[in-house]
Structure formats: C-alpha cells, structure tokens
Amino acid sequence: MKTDAQLKKDVQAELEWDPSINAAHVGVAVQEGVVTLSGHLGSFAEKVAVERAAKRVAGVRGVAVELDVKLEPHHHVSDAEIAAAVQTAFKWHALIPEDRIHFTVEKGWVTLTGMVDWEHQRHNAEVAVRPLTGVLGVVNKIHLRAREAPNYVAHRIHEALARYADDEARHIEVLVDGGTATLRGTVNSWAEHAVVQNAAWLAPGIQRVFNDLKVLS
C-alpha cells in the first residue's frame, strides 16, 4: 500500500507527464488515499484532464476536485460564439443525434437538455462541448428514453464484465431493478471502475447506473 506522501508524489509526476496540463497551476493534497486537487486553470478541458490524470494513478481511492477555470484573455469569447461552436460540434459528430439535443449558454456555462436512446449519445454530447474555447463548465441534463430492461440484462452485464477481466468480475455484484443497475463490490483501479460502469450503460433498457464499487488502495 502506498503512503499518502508517495501518492502525492505519483500524482504530481502524472500531472507533469501529461502535456495537456500545466502542473504548476495544480495543488495536490492527499489524505488516506483521497486526492484533493486545487488551483486555477485556463480551460475546462484542462480541468477534466487533471481529474483523469489523478485517477490514473494506482492507489488513489478518491478524488476531490476544487479546481476553477479562469480563461486566458485570448480564450474569452461571447456566449453567442460558444453556442455557434456547440452547434457545429454536434453537426459534425456522427454519434450525436443533434435533432434531439438542445442547449443554452450562459456566462460560459453550457447546459444540455433533451432525450436520447443511449448513454453513449448523452456522454458524447458532453465530451464534444468540453474542449470548446470559452467553455467554463458543462451541465448535462439530457435524459434517456424509457425502455423496458430485459429480464436477463443483469446476467448479460456480468458476461460483459467477464470478457474484460474474468478474475475481477468475480468480485462484482450486478443488481437490476427496472431500468436501474446497481454495481457493488471492489475493483483494483479507477480505470476498472470506469470499465465496469460503461459495461452497465451499454446494456439495453438501462437508464440509471448506481456505482457503489470500491477502489482498493
């Protein structure tokens, strides 16, 4: 098990390793395996990159994000310009049903609404907006269309997990109630945590995923 001091050193090294991050602008504190990130960043995309970098480090049990975005002068654009960029991003993304997604832009914050069939469509809409110049944050209020989940869906999710990592799947319990999947058990890293959650979202009829998985230190 890594000490908090070693985790802090490893997270700082990972931030410095990622060319999309200015590590000098990020403060790192660690207590009992939970990493707190603080500071001021030049874009929302960099904020997302910092959180992902911390989660890549083995031994990190949780991440608290206390980062805010202060745009560089050359990144300041109007809400109308951001809205035009969002519309273009959706138009040219083959996996986003642009006719079913609506958005508003207010003081650099983009709010997404609408209804889609699959989680990946909802997720891709948010991902398309994050790196746009001038965006300070994204609020994703897109809903998934209600569909009946098949009786066998929990078993199918577990089969998918076994295809990814058979040994790890033995430590994961999948419960499905209506369109809600609940994941319980343990995983070895945040990467596994994300893989398991994505597997649940891919199942037909799933509208919500409660991820109660614990990341082992």
What's the short story on this structure?
By secondary structure, this protein is an alpha/beta fold. Helices cover 36% and strands 29% of the residues. The protein folds into 3 domains: 4-70, Histidine-containing Protein, Chain: A (2-Layer Sandwich), CATH 3.30.1340.30; 75-144, Histidine-containing Protein, Chain: A, CATH 3.30.1340.30; 153-215, Fe-S cluster assembly (FSCA) (GMP Synthetase, Chain A, domain 3).
Give structural notes.
By secondary structure, the chain is α/β, with parallel strands linked by helices. The protein is built from seven helices and ten strands. The mean pLDDT is 91.
Task: Provide key terms for this protein.
single chain, 217 residues, alpha/beta, Histidine-containing Protein, Chain: A, GMP Synthetase, Chain A, domain 3, 3 domains, four-stranded mixed β-sheet, three-stranded mixed β-sheet, 7 helices, 10 strands, 36% helix, 29% strand
Topology:
Layout: H1 4-17, E1 26-31, E2 34-41, H2 44-56, E3 62-69, H3 79-91, E4 101-106, E5 109-116, H4 119-129, E6 137-140, E7 143-144, H5 153-164, H6 166-169, E8 172-177, E9 180-187, H7 190-201, E10 208-215
Parallel strand pairs: 2-3, 5-6, 5-7, 9-10
Antiparallel strand pairs: 1-2, 4-5, 8-9
Helix pairs in contact: 1-2, 5-7
Strand proportion, as a percent range, falls in: 25-35%
- Which structural class do you get from the secondary structure elements? alpha/beta
Shape: flat
Radius of gyration: 19 Å
- Total strands: the figure is 10
Helix content: 25-40%
CATH class of the largest domain: Alpha Beta
Count of the domains: 3
Instruction: List SSEs in N-to-C order.
Output: HEEHEHEEHEEHHEEHE
